[in-house]
């Protein structure tokens, strides 16, 4: 009998183990430490997550809120089992679970200078955050809660001295390079009534290179609203709600649409919205992903946002395939829809509290979770090893010890 275990078989087994367990396995031996941290193994584990080969690692949700009383930004990971009321309310005793079968409170390593961060997006277990709410701060981070590592990006290169606004996007290209896209609109004239100039400047941060680089000859003929923008990463492309100024129209000053950025060839183009949404103010629209489809949440009756509808693009890239799935009559103080659920009920914010609202019965289920209204957001999440072994630039203290 021999103690020899073929490395190929070991990789086959370990690459199907949840990432949270693999982080603890780093302490087993030097050989396991080297294997699990190797780029090839991290890539193999990610592939298995995407293929659904690791139970519980790809069907997760990341919930973020800003606790007003404690003045802390809080994150919770829980299974996407369409029962948020149970998942969000669970008690978590420790962090030694092998897979995400319970909700998990994640210790957050950053402190915003303005309260809480903008959650730009999530992709392959990475969370992109920007410290730019209510201020001109531009710190951008990539954070992997599973491996407890956070990387602060270098300062952007585009920083005009005159008035400007910016938009961020986060995703990955076909070669596995994670990119942060930054669109900057400038206005050299100080008159606040003038539009920003077109086209804007664009720069891209590549995780593979560690640098920002500018994109020349940008073809963007629309504006993305500053402050309240949202993004959706789908089919290798980033999407933002944008708008074009119109003239000589019947009381409709803008035309709303979707600006799309292709991660592979780094080009921009536009996707038309259905007529019902084109004439709506861009601030009343939010782009997202619903059940693997590009979607738009639209708030109607701008004065009080009395109802909200969910539109999906049945055939990606085909504007004629836009379909309205749900229309939810909002009431009882509900101000913001955080997530549409499969049964047409919604996770929503009512007076700074997260609730589940059933539009069929008008019943509201309180979840016992309060926070700043704009801070509530839910993103799809996966447990991966991306960023494992990279130098933690944002958090210098050695407070993340594996296995705790």
TrEMBL record:
<dbReference type="InterPro" id="IPR050796">
    <property type="entry name" value="SCF_F-box_component"/>
</dbReference>
<dbReference type="InterPro" id="IPR013187">
    <property type="entry name" value="F-box-assoc_dom_typ3"/>
</dbReference>
<dbReference type="InterPro" id="IPR017451">
    <property type="entry name" value="F-box-assoc_interact_dom"/>
</dbReference>
<protein>
    <submittedName>
        <fullName>OLC1v1025169C1</fullName>
    </submittedName>
</protein>
<dbReference type="Pfam" id="PF00646">
    <property type="entry name" value="F-box"/>
</dbReference>
<feature type="domain" description="F-box">
    <location>
        <begin position="1"/>
        <end position="49"/>
    </location>
</feature>
<dbReference type="InterPro" id="IPR001810">
    <property type="entry name" value="F-box_dom"/>
</dbReference>
<dbReference type="Pfam" id="PF08268">
    <property type="entry name" value="FBA_3"/>
</dbReference>
<dbReference type="InterPro" id="IPR036047">
    <property type="entry name" value="F-box-like_dom_sf"/>
</dbReference>
């Amino acid at each position: 009998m021999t103690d020899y275990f073929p490395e190929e078989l070991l990789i086959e087994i370990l690459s199907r183990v949840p990432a949270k367990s693999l982080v603890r396995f780093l302490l087993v031996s030097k050989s396991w430490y080297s294997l699990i941290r190797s780029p090839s193994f991290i890539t193999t584990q990610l592939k298995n997550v995407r293929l659904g080969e690791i139970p519980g690692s790809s069907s997760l949700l990341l919930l973020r809120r800003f606790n007003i009383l404690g003045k802390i930004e809080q994150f919770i990971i829980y299974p996407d089992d369409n029962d948020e009321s149970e998942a969000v309310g669970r008690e978590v005793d420790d962090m030694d679970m092998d897979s995400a079968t319970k909700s998990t409170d994640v210790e957050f390593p950053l402190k915003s200078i303005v309260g809480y961060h903008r959650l730009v997006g999530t992709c392959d277990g990475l969370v992109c955050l920007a410290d730019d709410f209510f201020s001109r701060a531009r710190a951008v981070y990539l954070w992997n809660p599973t491996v407890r590592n956070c990387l602060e990006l270098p300062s952007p290169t585009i920083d005009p001295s005159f008035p400007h606004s910016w938009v961020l996007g986060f995703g990955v290209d076909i070669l596995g390079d994670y990119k942060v896209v930054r669109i900057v609109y400038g206005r050299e004239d100080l008159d606040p009534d003038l539009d920003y100039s077109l086209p804007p400047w664009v720069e891209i941060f590549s995780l593979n290179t560690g640098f920002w680089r500018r994109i020349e000859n940008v073809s963007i003929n629309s504006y993305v609203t500053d402050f309240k923008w949202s993004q959706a990463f789908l089919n290798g492309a980033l999407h933002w709600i944008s708008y074009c100024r119109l003239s000589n129209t019947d009381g409709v000053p803008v035309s709303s649409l979707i600006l799309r950025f292709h991660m592979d060839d780094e080009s921009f183009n536009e996707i038309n919205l259905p007529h019902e949404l084109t004439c709506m103010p861009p601030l009343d629209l939010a782009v997202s992903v619903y059940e693997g489809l590009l979607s738009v949440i639209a708030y109607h009756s701008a004065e009080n946002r009395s109802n909200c509808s969910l539109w999906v693009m049945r055939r990606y890239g085909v504007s004629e395939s836009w379909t309205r799935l749900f229309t939810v009559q909002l009431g009882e103080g509900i101000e913001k829809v955080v997530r549409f659920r499969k049964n047409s009920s919604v996770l929503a914010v009512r007076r700074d509290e997260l609730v589940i609202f059933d539009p069929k019965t008008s019943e509201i289920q309180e979840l016992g979770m309060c926070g700043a209204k704009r801070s509530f957001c839910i993103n799809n999440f996966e447990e991966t090893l991306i960023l494992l072994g990279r130098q933690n630039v944002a958090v210098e203290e050695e407070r993340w010890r594996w296995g705790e």
